[in-house]
Amino acid sequence: MPSERRSDTSSDALIELHDVSRAYRAGSKDVTVLQDVSLRVHEGEFVSIVGPSGSGKSTLLNLITGIDRPTSGQIFVAGQPIHQMGENELARWRGLNVGIIFQFFQLLPTLTILENVVLPIDFARPYAAVPGPRKAKERAMDLLDMVDIADQAHKLPDTLSGGQQQRAAVARALANDPPLIVADEPTGNLDTATAEGVFALFQQLVGRGKTVVIVTHDRRLSARTERILHLLDGRLHRDQDNGGSAGPSSAGSAVVADPILTPYVSRFTPHVSRPTFHALRFTPYVSDATLQASDSVLPTPKDGL
Ligand SMILES: Nc1ncnc2c1ncn2[C@@H]1O[C@H](COP(=O)(O)OP(=O)(O)OP(=O)(O)O)[C@@H](O)[C@H]1O
Ligand SMILES: [Mg+2]
User: Fold this and answer.
1) Ligand number nearest to the C-alpha of 231
2) What is the C-alpha to C-alpha distance for residues 12 and 118, in angstroms, rounded to an integer?
3) How many angstroms is it from 59 CA to the middle of ligand 1?
4) How far apart are CA 270 and CA 277, in angstroms?
5) Beta partners for residue 150, in sequence order
6) Ligand 1 closest atom vs CA 60
């Protein structure tokens, strides 16, 4: 099938899903966990996904990031047809375009906080014009400063509080300045006051022009996002416009120039060797097994851009 690139100028959607379904094989039958979901999310929106346990929230998020694949339907993110992309291409694409934050932080335990934030930049260096090692460190420090934990930069993750670790995960998600930030229950493991601080960070990111999509069980938090997607039994039960108070409106809004989040990555992806692809699979975003792999998967940093 020829590759499609979304060039429909009538749509300024950052995320587009068309009739997306996801089924799993259970014994001799297929169980559909997400059914015919169609939606658009525009640049700069702050969206929450809510619904009962098992309603398909994580599945939907994993489809948007390309971690999971639809059984049928189409998914475009930042104009790319991610339902058609191969694993290697997806890994490269994800590293530049999506920042992912998990409930349990998933920082690599043997790397310092600073090294955890530098890691996505190191991974991207072989195929994109990201800063060299020294500049990458400076950028990581700026991001840690932005999330208020610069003083923790040289510590290992497990010496930090949960809230501090989640702040580090937010900084890591921003390392390559992706347009899209997604988070699955990012405050699910935090007390109310700490959760509030992390939520405020998301509001800040939306204010800086990022698109943020979070899954949450916390009604007080979802009530403060601009739009709430309600899932029920794998269907988009309700798409609720919740007002535009969380950040700038999407259409025509000027993105505020930001010294920390100014884009610097050249989004071109030429030829990448197999070993590089292999290393990219071990992004800090994938699974618990990744955590065991830790620093042995670090690619040799290459100088220059
Ligand atoms: N790999 C899989 N194989 C089979 N079924 C799966 C798989 N992953 C998810 N499911 C099923 O899909 C359904 C939706 O799961 P999902 O994790 O998306 O729910 P959720 O809304 O995120 O729930 P929670 O609030 O508990 O995190 C569940 O019934 C789950 O058991
Ligand atoms: Mg879930």
Assistant:
1) 1
2) 31
3) 6
4) 12
5) none
6) 18
Contacts of 12 (CB under 8 A, 6+ apart): 42, 43, 250, 251
What pLDDT was estimated at residue 12? 77
Closest CA to 101 of 215, 14, 268, 272: 215
Ligand in closest contact with the CA of 218: 1
Please give all residues whose beta carbon lies within 6 A of any atom in ligand 1, as ranges. 24, 33, 51, 53-59
Are the C-beta atoms of residues 180 and 210 closer than 8 Å to each other? yes
Ligand 2 center from residue 194 Cα (angstroms): 21
Helical H runs in 107-265?
113-124, 133-146, 162-173, 192-207, 219-222
Q: pTM of this prediction?
A: 0.82
- CATH T-level topology, domain 43-61+86-246+259-297: Rossmann fold (3.40.50)
Can you read off the two tokens belonging to residue 240?
A: 């609720």
- Tell me the pLDDT tens digit for each residue of 231-261: 999 999 999 999 855 444 333 334 444 566 6
**Residue 105: closest CA among 181, 151, 64, 163:** 163
In the chain, where the domains are located: 43-61+86-246+259-297
Task: Using alpha carbons only, give the angle 210, 79, 305 rounded to the nearest 5 degrees.
Answer: 70
Among candidate residues 149, 152, 157, the one with its CA nearest the CA of residue 108: 157
Identify the pLDDT of residue 244.
59
Query: Which atom number of ligand 1 is nearest to the Cα of residue 234?
Result: 14
Token pair recorded at residue 58: 């994580």
- Return the SS3 of 227: strand
Residues of the chain with pLDDT under 50: 1-5, 7-10, 246-257, 265-305
pLDDT at 292: 34
Q: What is the pLDDT of residues 57-99, one digit of tens each?
A: 999 999 999 999 999 999 999 989 999 999 999 999 999 999 9
